[in-house]
């Protein structure tokens, strides 16, 4: 991956969540963010995708975006790189395999009769019905290595108890835009730190991170500039740590474009021309 120095001497990187952030929550389109995306590419600023999606889904999107940068899948569980032939390859994993997670979930459900449905309980048709993904995309979404997205169908009170039991089992549950995702303890921020270390830019990177949901908090808090994309589906995120926190007015890719357009005008994201 090529990195370019900014006029201020550091390596700017843009790290983004996908659903509800770079991608429209309903249509999954990034069209509204195209002007900023193209400008990043023109300046040679790497765009790193960091999502709860699977590697299969993310590689597809990387192709659509025309990028070959490393990416982080399944809420920080897996760091992948793209090979010379354009395939994805697991580089580092930060969580237990999905089978371990499913084993714990089955035990909890048997013992407490919880009402929830996970991807493991659904056919691709059902996944496509509750996500709006096409059947082919639903198959890619079901190809999970580390995590299990759940639709909670029980009471809020029992959710509280369930969350406690998940923690006691050494697992981690986080609410994304659409699902409660259960994995081994990992997060998007820690995985990003590992990537920066691999790239040798842990201290010299200038990270702009964008996200919209509670599963983006650690990512946002590990950035130099945290961009909170407006979402009507979650409470306003409390982000502590970064020197700057910017909140978009618009939702999804329109909000992405709105904030990135402002940041691209600043010296921190100006790179020496090719
Ligand atoms: Mg999101």
Keywords:
Threonyl-tRNA Synthetase, Chain A, domain 2, Rossmann fold, 4-stranded antiparallel sheet, 2 domains, 22% strand, globular, binds magnesium ion, 5-stranded parallel sheet, alpha/beta, 274 residues
How would you describe this structure to a colleague?
The protein has 274 residues and is an alpha/beta fold. The chain has two domains: 167 residues, 3-Layer(aba) Sandwich (Rossmann fold), CATH 3.40.50.1000; 85 residues, Putative mannosyl-3-phosphoglycerate phosphatase, domain 2 (Threonyl-tRNA Synthetase, Chain A, domain 2, 2-Layer Sandwich). The chain contains nine helices and twelve strands. Strand 10, helix 8 and strand 11 form a beta-alpha-beta unit. The longest helix is centred in the middle third of the chain and has 15 residues. The chain is globular and about 60 Å long. The chain starts with 10 loop residues before the first strand and ends in a 10-residue tail after the last helix. 42% of the residues are buried. Magnesium ion binds next to loops.
Summarize the structure.
The chain is of the alpha/beta class. Helices cover 35% and strands 22% of the residues.
What's the arrangement of secondary structure elements?
Layout: E1 11-16, H1 34-43, E2 47-49, H2 55-65, E3 71-73, E4 78-82, E5 88-93, H3 98-112, E6 116-118, H4 124-131, H5 135-142, E7 148-152, H6 156-168, E8 172-175, E9 180-183, H7 188-199, E10 205-211, H8 217-221, E11 225-230, E12 244-251, H9 252-264
Parallel strand pairs: 1-2, 1-10, 10-11, 11-12
Antiparallel strand pairs: 3-4, 4-5, 6-7, 7-9, 8-9
